[in-house]
Amino acid sequence: MRHTLFCVGSVLVSLLLAAISLRYVTHAWLLAFVYSFQVHFALAGLAASLVLILIKRHWYAYLLVAVSVVLATHGVLMMKEFEAAPATAASRPLLRLMSFNIENDNIENSGRIAETVIASGADLVTILEAAPLLRELSRISATYPYRIGCGVGTPGCDTLVLSKRPFIDQAVSTLGDLWPNRLVQVTIDVDGTPVHLASVHLAKPYFDDFQVGELWDLRNAVKSVDGPLIVAGDFNSAIIAPRIQDFVRATGLNAAFPQPSTWPVRAGKLGIAIDHVLARPPLRLMSVSQVADNVGSNHYGLMAEIAIDR
């Protein structure tokens, strides 16, 4: 019986670790979900391997332990690769940004979401799947008089960018071939410095290769922007997903480390970060934190404090 349990367990753990390891060999969009959970699944493999050792002391179980540790460690190192430089004593927050996917069918919580946005103290707010806020816009406009989305610049109410400062420039465009108008770019003046924001919402990575095309378009859009830049929104993938890594590396963006988890909400702080706030020097991410109340959404929001190296 012990031998049977050991054999079955070894096969299952081996299959899990093999699925994670495929990222080092080829891009398989069907496994994109697994790649985002590399650290979590590798730790699960480690725990299962330790149980196998208790069942039967065998060299193969020790090999599985070693592979699990390597995969988990490399996952953490990949997250740290894009870590923003630490803030200096002279740095101070230049602006606060809130990014939140509030979920399209979260209509019953529209009032609470509006109150959360108004009370956030953010200078810029990017809301994804913004339909629940459509009936709250008149109330929100008292705090955020400038906006793009939900009838201003876009026919629908999908991506919404709110600002306390007027827009110097603004544009709405489409990424890839799946969803329209999911890239909103604005520029605001912050103490004499033009700061650019790109609000994005990418397709799920296991929707064929649509996300690959979206990332290519986003990379071109980011590279065309000169000056301080923030990219924020729902990427539907962790930063260690191979295609997201390629994008961040190619564009010179930085991320917080560790990144606060945003999904699934039931996992709390043990989830993964599929929503991101990224910045390009001279902007410096001083902090990125999880908005504690998900207000009925299937994502947690993010609050970022951003400084600039003068």
Describe the structure.
There is one protein chain. By secondary structure, the protein is α+β, with helices and mostly antiparallel strands. It folds into two domains: 2-80; 95-308, Endonuclease/exonuclease/phosphatase (Deoxyribonuclease I, Chain A), CATH 3.60.10. The chain has eight helices and eleven strands. The strands form two sheets. A six-stranded mixed sheet has the order 3-4-2-1-11-10, with no helix packed on it. A five-stranded mixed sheet has the order 5-6-7-8-9, with no helix packed on it. Helix 1 runs antiparallel to helix 3 (38-55) and helix 1 runs parallel beside helix 4. The radius of gyration is 21 Å and the shape is elongated.
Count of individual domains: 2
Main sheet strand line-up: 3-4-2-1-11-10
Please give the radius of gyration in angstroms.
Answer: 21 Å
Specify the CATH homologous superfamily of the largest domain: Endonuclease/exonuclease/phosphatase
Strand content: 15-25%
- Kindly identify the CATH topology of the largest domain: Deoxyribonuclease I, Chain A
The biggest sheet amounts to:
6 strands, mixed
What coarse outline follows from CA principal-axis ratios? elongated
Q: Which residues sit in consecutive blocks of at least 5 with pLDDT less than 50?
A: none
Category from helices, strands and their pairing: alpha+beta
The total beta strand count reads 11
